Amino acid sequence: MSSEQNIFSVSSLHQFIVQVLIKAGVPAADGKIVADNLLKADLWGVGTHGVSRFPRYLMRIKDGSINSQPNITINKLWPALFAVDGDNGLGSVVAAKAMEAAMDAAEDFGLCAVGVRSSNHFGTAGFYCDMAAKRNYLSIVFTNALSAIPPWGGKEAYLGTNPIAIGFPRLEKNPVIIDLATSIVARGKIITAAKQGLTIPEGWALDKNGRPTTNAEEALLGMILPMAGPKGYALALAVDHLSGVLTGAAFGQDVASYQGTHNQADVGHLIIVIKVDGFISKDDYYKRTDKFCEEIKAVEKAAGVSEIYLPGEREQTLEQQLLLKGIEIPKELLEELKEISSEYGVPLVKA
């Protein structure tokens, strides 16, 4: 099968995801958020968090471990401090509603922090920073995740890959979006390698006995190493504390464990937003941000480097290309989508 046969327009994939989710019992508005989130990841070249996650989300809805119609509650504890209970809903829906609440409160108080519990995998963290940037907010987004990283010096997974995302708006330009896992690599890349029967680079993972491995399946049964050694471990620990311990969500090995009587992931998130004119005027903020970014890009380049990119810039360029070209769906995933199409009676079309 040629790659051309696997390319689908963004609009057709969006419609497919939304229609399938509606058939699975998800409200249309919530389905749109999920589709937006998954496709943003693919448009940014982060296929591990894109449409490839859709079959697993559906599986969780089907087996009852994700609530398709949650009663998401937002509790105002302090003027600028909210607690959100996601009622075990789809993570992207829960997080998007938490972000909206944070921005609305920050409009009055300059900033807002929202702690989220009883959520699920929420996709690409930078998606929420992009949301905030479009409304003139700086944002910091944390989430914990399934245990995958050992504490530094350990040989048992305890912490998740626990990403950190930070977004800085720019005036009439794409925002700066920093989005990184605290592991040396996103777990989704190892999942993809395992599905395709590929090996992984040395230094990514340990097997279940704590020995280095290049076998993707052994890595999934074992653990992923933190980025930057003990520094990555410390950041993963901080994110788990802020997302799980602080918010009342699960933490450590209890996140998405599905062990014993546990039937919920209970993923936690922490979302912080700050108005761009919280400390200085909006005009000053945007002028200073432009100067900052321009100076970075104008730094003398190392040998062989044609351009210095801001965080998120290459992803945003790719997004514009793929919106026109379409998204290529790997063969294995396409087979899964065809099965979903048949099961839910929703056609999978290209245009």
Automatic annotation (TrEMBL):
It holds the Pfam family Ldh_2. The keyword Oxidoreductase applies. InterPro entries: Mal/L-sulf/L-lact_DH-like_ah, Mal/L-sulf/L-lact_DH-like_NADP, Mal/L-sulfo/L-lacto_DH-like_sf, Malate/L-lactate_DH-like. GO terms for molecular function: oxidoreductase activity. The keyword Kinase does not apply. Belongs to the LDH2/MDH2 oxidoreductase family. This is Malate/lactate/ureidoglycolate dehydrogenase, LDH2 family. It comes from Pelosinus propionicus DSM 13327.
